[in-house]
Amino acid sequence: MKWSHWLPCLDWGRRYDRSSAAQDGLAALIVTLMLIPQSLAYAMLAGLPPVAGLYASILPLLAYALFGSSRTLAVGPVAVVSLMTAASLAPLFPAGSPEYVGAAMLLALLSGVLLTAMAMLRLGFIANFLSHPVVSGFISASGILIAVGQLKHLFGVSASGENLPQLLPQLIQALPGTHGPTLLIGVFSLAWLWWARTRLKPLLQRLGLSAPLASNLAKAGPIMAIIAAIAAVALLQLEQAGVRVVGVVPQGLPGLTLPTLDLDLAVQLLPAALLISLVGFVESVSVGQTLAAKRRQRIQPDNELLGLGAANIAASFSGGFPVTGGFARSVVNHDAGAQTPMAGVFTAVGIALSLVLLTPLLHDLPQAVLAATIIVAVLSLVDLKSLRHTWRYSRQDGAAQLATLLGVLLIGVETGILLGVGLSLLLFLWRTSRPHIAVVGQVPGSEHFRNVERFAVIESPSVLSLRVDESLYFPNARYLEERVGELVAARPRVRHLVLMCSGVNLIDASALDSLQAIVERLRTAGVQLHLSEVKGPVMDQLRRSDFLQTFGGQVFISQFEALKHLAPALSSQPLSMQGKPHEKRS
Amino acid sequence: MKWSHWLPCLDWGRRYDRSSAAQDGLAALIVTLMLIPQSLAYAMLAGLPPVAGLYASILPLLAYALFGSSRTLAVGPVAVVSLMTAASLAPLFPAGSPEYVGAAMLLALLSGVLLTAMAMLRLGFIANFLSHPVVSGFISASGILIAVGQLKHLFGVSASGENLPQLLPQLIQALPGTHGPTLLIGVFSLAWLWWARTRLKPLLQRLGLSAPLASNLAKAGPIMAIIAAIAAVALLQLEQAGVRVVGVVPQGLPGLTLPTLDLDLAVQLLPAALLISLVGFVESVSVGQTLAAKRRQRIQPDNELLGLGAANIAASFSGGFPVTGGFARSVVNHDAGAQTPMAGVFTAVGIALSLVLLTPLLHDLPQAVLAATIIVAVLSLVDLKSLRHTWRYSRQDGAAQLATLLGVLLIGVETGILLGVGLSLLLFLWRTSRPHIAVVGQVPGSEHFRNVERFAVIESPSVLSLRVDESLYFPNARYLEERVGELVAARPRVRHLVLMCSGVNLIDASALDSLQAIVERLRTAGVQLHLSEVKGPVMDQLRRSDFLQTFGGQVFISQFEALKHLAPALSSQPLSMQGKPHEKRS
Question: Of A2, B94, B148, B500, which shows the fewest CB atoms inside 10 Å?
C-alpha cells in the first residue's frame, strides 16, 4: 500500500498547470457566490448561528482537497445532513446555545472519526445497508420536512418540532401572528429564487449574453436576493419594524478549537453520527460517481470515506458542523469547468475572504431570505413520483420506501431511516429465505437433469435428486432443512438423496450445520445424502470441516454420475424411452 | 385455508386409540418426574418463586397440545429462556416481588402474542436473523453464565449480576461466608446428578433391570436427589441450621389471572419479549425437526409458532413465565415412546396432581439441590469446541460466534445476542457486497463465452462483455456501479457494454437504479449498455419499469447474438483461430 493511495492530491498536484488553475479559479468564483447564501442558510437549518456555515466551508474544503478522490465534488454544509444535525441536537440543548454549538462540533468530530475508521478498515460496504428506495424515501421526506420547518421564518412566527404532527399544528396556530413585512420579504425572495432557477438564464441570453456567462450569472440568483434584501432592510429600517435578521456576525476567520470531549455526550451522539456519516457518504459517492463518469474518471470509495472523514474532522476543529459533498453545488462546480480539487481550495479562500471582508454587511440579512433559499433548494429534492415507480417495480422495495418516507414525516429523521433499513433487511430475508429448490429428473437418453415439474424426465424411485438454485447460507439454512424433510417424508421409497450444487456459490456455517442435521435426520429415516457438481471453492471450504469424512455419502462430479452409481438400472434404460424432452415452460 | 391447518390435534385426535394412550401415559410419567425438579429450578433461575415453574408446566402444555405440530415436543420452562427472563426483569424489579412476578407474566403474554402474530402473518422467517453460529455462541455462553450464577446457591452466599465481570468478583468476595451444610448438600447433589447422568443406567442394567426400565429409572435421578435432600433437611433440622430451602409453596392449582396490562412496562419489555420468542422458537423448532425426522414425520413452522404462542399466552394467564420446547425433556419424551401431544396433556395432569398433593413436601427442599440440577443441565449445553470448528470452517462465522459468546459473558444476554446478529448481518453484507463479476470473451469457433482470466478467449476491442454471477440487489448495487465504472475507464476504445445476466435471479429497485445510473454515465462517456441472457422472471419485472424503453440498448437472447450484432467482424473470424479453449483453472 503506497502513501499516494491515500493522497490522490499527489497525483493531480504533480501535473497542475496554469490552464487548470484558470479553470479551477473561475469555477471556484461561481461556487463561492452560491456557497455563501447556502452555507448561512444550512447553518440556520442546523440550528446554529449562520456564521458556522461559513466556518464549515473553509477547512473542510482544504481537507477534502488533500484526501478526496473526486475531481469536482464540492464539499460543505448540505440540507439533509444539516437537518439530521438539528434532529439529533435539538432534544439535548437549546438551539444556538454554546452547548449546542459545541455538540455540533463534537458530532462533526464523531462523524469524521467514523468515516476515517471506515476508510482504514475498508468498511465502506456498510453503506449498502441503505438501499436506494430507503435513501430516496429519506431524501424526499427530509425535503418536505425541511421546507415545512422553514415556513416559520417566512411568516415571522415561532414553531418547532421534529415531525409533521408536531410542526403543522404549531405552525397553523401561530399563523394569526404573521409578521407582514417578513412575509413580504419571504414571498418576494421565494418568487425570485423560483423564477431565477429556470428563467434567469434564458432571459440573460436573450439580452445578448453568451450561454456560459448567462448560466454562471444565473447561479448568482440567491446572492442577488441577499444583496437586495440587505439593502432593503438597511434603507427601510426593517429590523426596527420587527423583521428578524441574522444580526452580529463575528468578523474574521474561525479560531482552531477542540470540540468539548464529553464522553457521555459522545456515546449519546454516536448513533446519530453513524447515520449522518452513512447518509452523507452515500449521497456524496453517488454525486461523485456521476460526475467522474462524465469524463471517464474514477472515484475510489475508500478515498471518498477518508476525504469526507478529514473534512468533518476539520469542520469540528474550526467551529463547524457535519458536512458532505453537495449535489447541486458539485454539478455547478463541474459544469463551470473545475478540473481538480484545487477549485475547492480556491472556494475556501473565497469564503475566508468573505468572512474577513463581508461579515459586517450580513448583519441586516433577513432570516426569511435564507429560509426561502432553503425551501427552493430542498423542494428540488422531493421526488414523490419515484415512490410510484418503485412500488410498481417491486412491492417490497416500494414498501421500504413508503415506510421510510412516512417514518421521517410522521416520527422523525432517525426513526424513519432506521425503520426503512430494518424493513428492507426484513424483506430481503423474506425474499431470500425460500430459494428455488427443484426436484430434477434425467432427460431421457441424455446426461442432463431438469425440473420434474417443467420437463418430461425420468425420476428414480429410490434416488431423489434436488437442485438448489442459490447459495446455502443462514437466511435459507432452515428452509433447506424443512424442504428436505417434506420431500423425503412424501417419498417413503427413497433411499438416497443427491443434492445438485451447481448453483451453490457458498455454504456458510449455518448451512453446514443444516446439512449435518439433514444427514442425521435422513440417516435415522434410512436415507443417505450425497452431493454432486460441487464448485471448487465450495469444496475447498467443506474440506476445512469434517463434513466430508462423516456424512457417509459421496461427492459426485455430476448428477449423471451419481445416478449411474446409485441407480444403475435407470441410466441404462432402453432407447425406446428416449427422446427430446418436452419443455413445459421456458 | 382449512381450520384443521391451525389445529393439528384434529388430525391425530381422530385416530387416537388405547395403545397410543398407554405409550403416551408411560412417557408422561417419566417426563413428569423429570419436569418437577426442572420446573422448580428454572423458576428459581428466572428469579421467580419455584411454584411458578409448576404453574408454567400445566396450561402451556395443554395449549401446545392443541396447536403444536410436533408429536413429541415437551414444552415448559427451559434454562436459556429463564435466564433471558431474569436478565430482562432483574433491572426493573426486586426478584420474587409481586411486581416481578406480574412482569414475568406480562413478558409471557407479550412473547405469546408476538409468536401468534408471527404465525398469522407468516413471519417465522424472522428467526433466520439468528444464524447457527450466533445461536450456538449464545447457548454456550448462557450455559456458562447460568452455571456461574447458580454457584451462590451451592455455597449459600449472595451474589448477583448480569455478566461475568459483575458476578465473579461478588462471588469471590462472598466465598469466605460459605455456609458449610449448604455446600455439603450442594456438592453431594452435584456429584450424584453428574454420576447419575451417565452411570446410573449401566449400573441398573448390571443389577438385572431391562434396558428400557433402567433408562427410565435413571431419568429419575434428579427427583431421587430431591427426595433424599428433603428427607435430610427434615430429619436433621437443617433449615434451622441455616440451609436455605424453598419454603412455603402454595398448595393447589394456579388461579386464572390476567397479567398486569401496564402499557409502559409492555413497551419496555417488548424487545426482550421479541428476543425470547425468537430464541425459544429457534430452539424448539430445531428439536422438533430432529425428533420428527426420526419417524419420518414433519413439523410445520407456522404451527410451531402458534403452538408456542398459545403456550406462552396460557402461561401468562396462570401465573407462569415464558416457556418453550426443551431439548433434553423432548428427547426423553420421544425415547420413552410418546406418540402424540396427548403425552403433554398427561404430563400437565401429573404436574397438576403434584401441585395438589406434593407441595407441602417441597417446603424443605434446599435451594442448593435445585442449583445443582440447573448446573448439571446447563453445562451439557456448553460446547466450546464448536467455536473452534466454526472458526476453522469460516472466519466470518467464527467471528460472529465469538462475538456472541463474549458479548453474553462480558456484557449480558440481550446485548450479546444483538451483537452477534448485528455482526453476522454486517459480515453477510460484506461477503455479498462484492459478487463475482467476470469479463468474458468468446471461445474461438464456438458460441460460448468464458472468463478472460481463465480461458484463452477472444475479446472485442469495442464490445465489453461482463458476466455477473449473482443476483443484483442492494448489497451489491453500488459495487456494480463501481466495477463498471472502473472497467470502462480502463478501456477507452469500448463503445458497447453487454451485461450477461445468466446468473441473475433478481434485480431489485436498488439495482435497477444502479443500472439506470450506469446507463446515464456510460452514455456521457459514449458507451451503450445492452443486456443478454436475461431470465424470464427478471424480464417480467423489468417490464414493470420504463428501463427497457429508456436505456437505449438491446436485450439479446444470448451473448453470442449480442456480439454477432454489435461486432460482426469478430464472430466471423477465420477457422484457423478456432480450437478447444485451454482451461487455465477448473
Answer: A2
d(CA A261, CA A256): 15
Q: Which residues of A touch B510 (CB under 8 A)?
A: 131-133, 397
Q: Does residue A6 lie in a domain region?
A: no
Q: A425 to chain B: which residues are within 8 Å by CB?
A: 425
Element (H, E) at A168: helix A164-174
What is the rounded CA–CA span in Å between residue A433 and residue A479? 7
The answer to whether residues A390 and A418 belong to one domain is yes
B306 vs B323: CA distance, rounded Å: 13
> How far apart (Å, rounded) are the C-alpha atoms in residues B551 and B460?
22
Query: Helix, strand, coil % (nearest 5) of chain B?
Result: 65, 5, 30
**What residues contact residue B255 under an 8 Å CB cut-off, 6+ apart?**
B318, B319
What 3-state DSSP class applies to A225? helix
Residue A303: which of A61, A111, A62, A124 has the closest Cα?
A124
Do A457 and A311 lie in a common domain? no
Mutate to test the interface with A, among B71, B296, B327, B471 (most CBs of A within 10 A): B296
Helix (H) or strand (E) segment spanning residue B44: helix B18-45
Question: In whole angstroms, what is the distance from residue A378 CA to residue A41 CA?
Answer: 12
Closest CA to A171 of A189, A155, A185, A188: A155
Give A163's DSSP letter: S
Q: Does the structure show a pLDDT above 90 at A463?
A: yes
Amino acid found at B586: S
Domain count, chain A: 2
Residue B412: give the domain boundaries: 22-423
Contact between B473 and B497 under an 8 Å Cβ cutoff? The reply is no
The residue type at A516: Q
Write down the mean pLDDT value for chain A.
Answer: 88
Specify which residues B455 forms β-bridges with.
B583
Please state, in angstroms and as integers, the Cα–Cα distance from residue A430 to each residue in A396, A425, A474, B353, following that order: 10, 9, 12, 45
A 10 A CB-CB count for B519 gives 18
| A402, A140 Cβ separation under 8 angstroms | no
Which residues of chain B register pLDDT less than 50? 571-586
In a domain, B37, yes or no: yes
Whether this model's pTM surpasses 0.90: no
Residue from B42, B34, B49, B129 nearest B77 by CA: B42
